[in-house]
Design a protein that fits this description.
Layout: H1 5-24, E1 34-49, E2 55-61, E3 65-75, E4 78-88, E5 98-108, E6 114-121, H2 123-127, E7 149-160, E8 163-170, E9 182-190, E10 195-204, E11 209-219, E12 224-235, E13 240-253, E14 256-265, E15 270-280, E16 284-294, E17 301-311
Antiparallel strand pairs: 1-2, 1-3, 1-17, 3-4, 4-5, 5-6, 6-7, 7-8, 8-9, 9-10, 10-11, 11-12, 12-13, 13-14, 14-15, 15-16, 16-17
Protein backbone atom coordinates (compact mmCIF):
# COMPACT_ATOMS: atom_id res chain seq x y z
CA UNK A 1 0.00 0.00 0.00
CA UNK A 2 1.35 3.42 -0.95
CA UNK A 3 1.95 5.74 2.01
CA UNK A 4 0.99 9.26 1.01
CA UNK A 5 2.10 12.51 2.64
CA UNK A 6 -1.48 13.09 3.79
CA UNK A 7 -1.65 9.69 5.52
CA UNK A 8 1.70 10.32 7.19
CA UNK A 9 0.49 13.69 8.51
CA UNK A 10 -2.74 12.18 9.84
CA UNK A 11 -0.80 9.35 11.47
CA UNK A 12 1.56 11.79 13.19
CA UNK A 13 -1.40 13.83 14.47
CA UNK A 14 -3.03 10.68 15.89
CA UNK A 15 0.17 9.70 17.70
CA UNK A 16 0.52 13.17 19.23
CA UNK A 17 -3.13 13.13 20.30
CA UNK A 18 -2.74 9.71 21.95
CA UNK A 19 0.35 10.89 23.85
CA UNK A 20 -1.50 13.97 25.12
CA UNK A 21 -4.53 11.88 26.15
CA UNK A 22 -2.20 9.49 27.98
CA UNK A 23 -0.75 12.33 29.99
CA UNK A 24 -4.17 13.76 30.76
CA UNK A 25 -5.49 10.42 32.02
CA UNK A 26 -3.05 10.47 34.93
CA UNK A 27 -4.65 11.15 38.34
CA UNK A 28 -5.36 14.81 38.79
CA UNK A 29 -4.05 16.51 41.96
CA UNK A 30 -6.50 18.14 44.32
CA UNK A 31 -5.18 21.70 43.88
CA UNK A 32 -7.63 24.18 42.36
CA UNK A 33 -6.83 26.20 39.26
CA UNK A 34 -5.20 29.58 39.78
CA UNK A 35 -6.89 32.64 38.27
CA UNK A 36 -5.12 35.99 37.85
CA UNK A 37 -6.88 39.15 36.69
CA UNK A 38 -4.81 41.90 35.10
CA UNK A 39 -5.27 44.96 32.92
CA UNK A 40 -4.54 48.60 32.28
CA UNK A 41 -6.37 51.87 31.73
CA UNK A 42 -4.47 53.90 29.14
CA UNK A 43 -5.70 57.29 27.93
CA UNK A 44 -3.94 59.98 25.91
CA UNK A 45 -4.24 63.38 24.28
CA UNK A 46 -2.70 63.50 20.81
CA UNK A 47 -2.17 66.03 18.05
CA UNK A 48 -1.61 64.20 14.77
CA UNK A 49 -1.06 65.63 11.29
CA UNK A 50 -2.55 64.11 8.14
CA UNK A 51 -0.86 63.76 4.75
CA UNK A 52 -1.57 67.45 4.04
CA UNK A 53 0.02 68.60 7.29
CA UNK A 54 -3.32 69.48 8.91
CA UNK A 55 -3.33 68.62 12.62
CA UNK A 56 -6.20 67.36 14.75
CA UNK A 57 -6.26 67.37 18.55
CA UNK A 58 -7.98 64.32 20.04
CA UNK A 59 -8.46 62.81 23.49
CA UNK A 60 -8.83 59.05 23.11
CA UNK A 61 -8.30 55.61 24.52
CA UNK A 62 -4.88 54.03 23.94
CA UNK A 63 -5.23 50.22 24.17
CA UNK A 64 -6.88 49.93 27.56
CA UNK A 65 -7.55 46.27 28.35
CA UNK A 66 -8.55 43.70 30.92
CA UNK A 67 -7.65 40.03 30.98
CA UNK A 68 -7.75 36.77 32.91
CA UNK A 69 -5.03 34.12 33.10
CA UNK A 70 -5.95 30.61 34.22
CA UNK A 71 -3.53 27.80 35.12
CA UNK A 72 -4.32 24.28 36.27
CA UNK A 73 -2.06 21.32 37.03
CA UNK A 74 -3.50 18.25 35.31
CA UNK A 75 -0.85 15.71 36.24
CA UNK A 76 2.79 15.59 37.24
CA UNK A 77 4.65 17.63 34.65
CA UNK A 78 1.48 18.56 32.72
CA UNK A 79 -0.24 21.96 33.09
CA UNK A 80 -3.27 23.40 31.35
CA UNK A 81 -3.58 27.14 30.78
CA UNK A 82 -5.95 29.65 29.24
CA UNK A 83 -6.05 33.37 28.67
CA UNK A 84 -8.86 35.75 27.75
CA UNK A 85 -8.09 39.42 27.10
CA UNK A 86 -10.37 42.12 25.72
CA UNK A 87 -9.66 45.69 24.71
CA UNK A 88 -11.64 48.19 26.75
CA UNK A 89 -12.57 51.24 24.69
CA UNK A 90 -12.80 54.02 27.26
CA UNK A 91 -14.50 56.18 24.60
CA UNK A 92 -17.14 53.52 23.82
CA UNK A 93 -16.70 54.34 20.13
CA UNK A 94 -19.68 53.12 18.13
CA UNK A 95 -21.27 51.66 21.28
CA UNK A 96 -18.78 48.76 21.16
CA UNK A 97 -16.71 49.05 24.35
CA UNK A 98 -15.09 45.61 24.07
CA UNK A 99 -12.97 44.09 21.32
CA UNK A 100 -11.26 40.72 21.34
CA UNK A 101 -7.50 40.76 21.84
CA UNK A 102 -6.47 37.31 23.06
CA UNK A 103 -8.50 34.17 23.72
CA UNK A 104 -6.69 30.85 23.77
CA UNK A 105 -6.18 27.65 25.74
CA UNK A 106 -3.44 25.07 25.75
CA UNK A 107 -1.40 22.45 27.54
CA UNK A 108 2.22 22.51 28.69
CA UNK A 109 3.72 19.02 28.38
CA UNK A 110 7.10 19.92 29.84
CA UNK A 111 9.95 18.62 27.70
CA UNK A 112 7.45 17.61 25.00
CA UNK A 113 6.56 21.24 24.35
CA UNK A 114 3.58 23.57 24.61
CA UNK A 115 0.42 23.39 22.46
CA UNK A 116 -2.21 26.13 22.29
CA UNK A 117 -5.10 27.24 20.08
CA UNK A 118 -7.34 30.28 19.68
CA UNK A 119 -6.74 33.99 19.09
CA UNK A 120 -3.03 34.44 19.76
CA UNK A 121 -0.05 36.74 19.28
CA UNK A 122 2.13 36.42 16.21
CA UNK A 123 5.33 34.46 16.87
CA UNK A 124 7.01 36.67 14.23
CA UNK A 125 6.25 39.69 16.39
CA UNK A 126 7.38 37.93 19.56
CA UNK A 127 10.80 37.01 18.18
CA UNK A 128 11.54 40.03 15.98
CA UNK A 129 9.46 43.22 15.90
CA UNK A 130 8.77 43.33 19.65
CA UNK A 131 12.44 44.24 20.14
CA UNK A 132 11.81 47.78 18.84
CA UNK A 133 8.21 48.17 20.06
CA UNK A 134 8.95 50.22 23.18
CA UNK A 135 6.82 53.38 22.88
CA UNK A 136 3.33 53.48 24.47
CA UNK A 137 1.84 55.34 21.50
CA UNK A 138 4.08 55.60 18.42
CA UNK A 139 7.18 53.84 17.10
CA UNK A 140 7.70 50.50 15.33
CA UNK A 141 6.02 52.05 12.28
CA UNK A 142 8.43 50.80 9.60
CA UNK A 143 8.28 47.07 10.45
CA UNK A 144 7.16 44.74 7.67
CA UNK A 145 4.98 42.10 9.35
CA UNK A 146 1.77 40.21 8.62
CA UNK A 147 -0.13 40.75 11.88
CA UNK A 148 0.32 41.30 15.60
CA UNK A 149 -2.38 38.83 16.69
CA UNK A 150 -4.99 36.80 14.88
CA UNK A 151 -7.79 34.24 15.27
CA UNK A 152 -8.06 30.63 14.07
CA UNK A 153 -4.47 29.89 15.10
CA UNK A 154 -2.63 26.96 16.65
CA UNK A 155 0.91 27.12 18.03
CA UNK A 156 3.56 24.67 19.13
CA UNK A 157 6.61 25.78 21.11
CA UNK A 158 9.64 24.01 22.52
CA UNK A 159 13.25 24.66 23.46
CA UNK A 160 16.19 22.72 22.02
CA UNK A 161 19.75 23.39 23.16
CA UNK A 162 18.90 26.85 24.44
CA UNK A 163 17.01 27.84 21.26
CA UNK A 164 13.28 28.55 21.67
CA UNK A 165 11.28 27.45 18.62
CA UNK A 166 7.75 28.74 18.01
CA UNK A 167 5.48 27.64 15.16
CA UNK A 168 2.05 29.05 14.32
CA UNK A 169 -0.53 28.00 11.75
CA UNK A 170 -3.75 29.76 10.84
CA UNK A 171 -6.67 27.83 9.34
CA UNK A 172 -9.54 30.13 8.38
CA UNK A 173 -12.21 28.58 6.17
CA UNK A 174 -13.72 31.99 5.38
CA UNK A 175 -10.94 32.64 2.86
CA UNK A 176 -12.54 30.11 0.54
CA UNK A 177 -9.40 27.98 0.48
CA UNK A 178 -9.04 24.68 2.28
CA UNK A 179 -5.97 24.01 4.41
CA UNK A 180 -3.37 26.23 6.00
CA UNK A 181 -3.75 29.97 5.37
CA UNK A 182 -0.74 31.26 7.30
CA UNK A 183 2.40 29.61 8.60
CA UNK A 184 4.87 31.31 10.92
CA UNK A 185 8.07 29.99 12.44
CA UNK A 186 10.43 31.77 14.81
CA UNK A 187 13.60 31.02 16.74
CA UNK A 188 15.10 33.07 19.56
CA UNK A 189 18.19 32.51 21.68
CA UNK A 190 20.62 34.26 24.00
CA UNK A 191 24.10 34.81 22.59
CA UNK A 192 25.18 36.04 26.02
CA UNK A 193 23.58 37.34 29.19
CA UNK A 194 23.13 40.71 27.46
CA UNK A 195 22.29 39.83 23.83
CA UNK A 196 19.15 38.09 22.55
CA UNK A 197 18.64 37.25 18.86
CA UNK A 198 15.39 36.44 17.08
CA UNK A 199 14.76 35.06 13.58
CA UNK A 200 11.31 34.62 12.05
CA UNK A 201 9.39 33.80 8.88
CA UNK A 202 5.75 34.36 7.91
CA UNK A 203 4.07 32.82 4.88
CA UNK A 204 0.72 34.33 3.88
CA UNK A 205 -0.37 31.48 1.62
CA UNK A 206 -3.69 33.07 0.66
CA UNK A 207 -2.06 36.20 -0.80
CA UNK A 208 1.29 34.57 -1.66
CA UNK A 209 3.34 37.02 0.42
CA UNK A 210 6.33 36.07 2.59
CA UNK A 211 7.89 38.01 5.45
CA UNK A 212 11.34 37.43 6.96
CA UNK A 213 12.93 39.22 9.88
CA UNK A 214 15.84 39.42 12.27
CA UNK A 215 15.82 41.16 15.63
CA UNK A 216 18.46 41.95 18.24
CA UNK A 217 18.10 43.20 21.79
CA UNK A 218 21.27 44.24 23.56
CA UNK A 219 21.36 45.10 27.24
CA UNK A 220 24.31 47.47 27.44
CA UNK A 221 23.87 47.98 31.18
CA UNK A 222 21.18 47.72 33.83
CA UNK A 223 19.72 51.02 32.61
CA UNK A 224 20.49 51.10 28.86
CA UNK A 225 19.03 48.89 26.10
CA UNK A 226 19.30 48.88 22.31
CA UNK A 227 16.91 47.08 19.95
CA UNK A 228 17.27 46.53 16.21
CA UNK A 229 15.12 44.84 13.56
CA UNK A 230 15.49 44.14 9.86
CA UNK A 231 12.32 42.96 8.10
CA UNK A 232 11.48 42.10 4.48
CA UNK A 233 8.13 41.77 2.72
CA UNK A 234 8.24 39.70 -0.50
CA UNK A 235 5.16 39.90 -2.76
CA UNK A 236 5.35 36.92 -5.09
CA UNK A 237 2.68 38.11 -7.56
CA UNK A 238 4.65 41.25 -8.45
CA UNK A 239 8.10 39.91 -7.61
CA UNK A 240 8.77 42.94 -5.38
CA UNK A 241 10.59 43.16 -2.05
CA UNK A 242 10.26 45.87 0.59
CA UNK A 243 12.80 45.96 3.39
CA UNK A 244 12.89 48.08 6.51
CA UNK A 245 15.27 48.77 9.37
CA UNK A 246 14.48 50.04 12.84
CA UNK A 247 16.67 50.86 15.82
CA UNK A 248 15.63 52.00 19.31
CA UNK A 249 17.70 53.03 22.31
CA UNK A 250 16.26 53.36 25.83
CA UNK A 251 17.84 54.61 29.04
CA UNK A 252 16.41 54.65 32.55
CA UNK A 253 17.22 57.71 34.62
CA UNK A 254 15.82 57.47 38.15
CA UNK A 255 12.13 56.66 37.57
CA UNK A 256 11.92 57.91 33.95
CA UNK A 257 12.73 55.91 30.82
CA UNK A 258 13.84 57.97 27.82
CA UNK A 259 13.69 56.39 24.35
CA UNK A 260 14.66 57.42 20.83
CA UNK A 261 13.96 55.42 17.68
CA UNK A 262 14.50 55.58 13.94
CA UNK A 263 12.84 53.44 11.27
CA UNK A 264 13.15 53.56 7.50
CA UNK A 265 11.18 51.71 4.83
CA UNK A 266 13.25 51.11 1.71
CA UNK A 267 12.41 53.88 -0.80
CA UNK A 268 9.63 54.91 1.55
CA UNK A 269 8.84 56.76 4.75
CA UNK A 270 11.37 57.40 7.51
CA UNK A 271 10.16 57.68 11.10
CA UNK A 272 11.96 59.40 13.98
CA UNK A 273 10.45 58.96 17.44
CA UNK A 274 11.43 60.37 20.82
CA UNK A 275 9.58 59.79 24.06
CA UNK A 276 9.67 59.42 27.82
CA UNK A 277 7.68 57.47 30.39
CA UNK A 278 7.78 58.40 34.08
CA UNK A 279 6.67 55.89 36.69
CA UNK A 280 4.86 57.20 39.76
CA UNK A 281 4.59 54.31 42.17
CA UNK A 282 4.53 50.69 41.03
CA UNK A 283 1.56 50.81 38.67
CA UNK A 284 0.95 54.37 37.45
CA UNK A 285 2.92 56.21 34.78
CA UNK A 286 2.83 59.35 32.63
CA UNK A 287 4.22 59.37 29.10
CA UNK A 288 4.75 61.59 26.10
CA UNK A 289 6.23 61.27 22.63
CA UNK A 290 6.88 63.01 19.34
CA UNK A 291 7.04 61.17 16.01
CA UNK A 292 8.23 62.81 12.79
CA UNK A 293 7.40 61.18 9.46
CA UNK A 294 9.48 61.92 6.38
CA UNK A 295 7.84 60.30 3.30
CA UNK A 296 9.73 59.69 0.07
CA UNK A 297 7.33 62.16 -1.52
CA UNK A 298 4.75 64.48 -0.06
CA UNK A 299 4.52 66.53 3.11
CA UNK A 300 6.53 65.83 6.25
CA UNK A 301 4.27 65.37 9.28
CA UNK A 302 4.55 65.42 13.08
CA UNK A 303 2.50 63.56 15.68
CA UNK A 304 2.56 64.37 19.39
CA UNK A 305 0.91 62.68 22.35
CA UNK A 306 0.81 62.73 26.14
CA UNK A 307 -1.00 60.19 28.26
CA UNK A 308 -1.42 58.29 31.50
CA UNK A 309 -1.47 54.57 32.24
CA UNK A 310 -2.56 52.63 35.31
CA UNK A 311 -1.76 48.91 35.33
CA UNK A 312 -3.15 46.28 37.69
Amino acid sequence: MKITKKKTTIGAAIIIALVVIGWLMKPKPAEAATIDVYGQLNYMLNNNEDANGVSTLTAEDNTSRIGVKIADNLAEGVDAFARVEVAVDADDTGSAPFNSRLAFAGVDLGTMGVLSAGRQNSVFKGAVTSKTDVFPEYGNSASQKLFSRDSHTMTYSNTFGGVKIDNLVKVDGTTGKSGMDVFESAASFDVSNSLNVGLAYSDDKVNDIQYTGTGLKYQISDVTTIGYTHTIKDVQSTNTETSANEVVASRLVDDTRYSVGYGKIEDGTAYTTVGAEKKIGDNFSLYGALQMEDPASGVDTQDMAVGMKLKF
